[in-house]
Amino acid sequence: MSWRRDVAPRMSTGMWATLIGCGVMHAVVDAACAAMAFSAVKTAGGDSWVAWCWVVAYDCIAFGSQSLFGLAVDKWRAPRLTGAAGCLLTAIGVMTFAFNPWLALCIAGIGNALFHVGAGCISLNLTPRRATAPGIFVAPGALGLALGTIAGNTGHFVAWLFVLLLMVPCLAIPFLEWPHIDYRRHSMKAQGGYLRIALVLLLLSILIRSFVGLASVFPWKSNGSLLIALTLAIVGGKAIGGVLADRFGWLQVGVASLLASAPLVALGAEHPLLAISGMFLFQMTMPITLAGIGILFPGRASFAFGLASLALLGGALPIFASPVPLVVDRGLMLCLIIVSAVSILIGLHLLSNHARKIEMEM
User: What pTM, to 2 d.p., does this model score?
Assistant: First the structure.
């Protein structure tokens, strides 16, 4: 964004360890859940309807419930306990999978939701009103999803290994340094209706990013090396996007990266170098929109994180609900990315005055 860029405090070594630890656990939780989901699809055999129901139900539980859990976490001010409980429930889901895959996915979906709103709240408060920490926290999730998908599809889902990894954060909590979380609340109503418009626009941008990311078809993804490169580009875009946005301004980085990615993602799908570069740029807006929603809900970071996840689910459902693989016209995809850029431009502009007021009150 264009306001002061020197407000965010420097993180101590302990805080960096906390952030990296939360990011690694994000990858493990998402990998475990993805491995179970795709293993369940294999378990369903030729019954595609059952497999579809499993996947959609899991996604609705894992992403659709986060805002509700977030309200409770903010009320009870317990993000650390919630994050650990999420890892524990996910581990229980993994242990249950061999006996009842459907029940296991439900348990893991709740665990996934709890982990995200707990650890997500912590990441938003490690660099308050800045995008660096949220980006670094969220980025490994894409890597975990990719690894879990491979493990589930190839039959290499090793339950005991995931259980062991998921228990680590429960033991590490007493030894990590945690940020101060300011639970003071500022009413959006007192600031005017323009903040609601900013919220809708930021959520719209997230929804479009989710839809376009899932609807993009890259015919070269069967090449293992190119698939790895694409995954690393997505991870890198999310992680670096927040750092660059805090350094050069949210508006500049957010709008420029989306506009630059539009022709590469929409029109360069057959060309690996263009498409991979486009997805790197396309994902750079993730930490910006997440941190922006966090600013709109001071003292309710878990709820803010849950709203962003709900928007992700909204963008994914049209893809999942289609009975056949959905093919999106390239021109439409180009227009959607441009709409996302305009949404960020207007949304962040409306948000900037509100953010300055909050900083002046501190």
Answer: 0.94
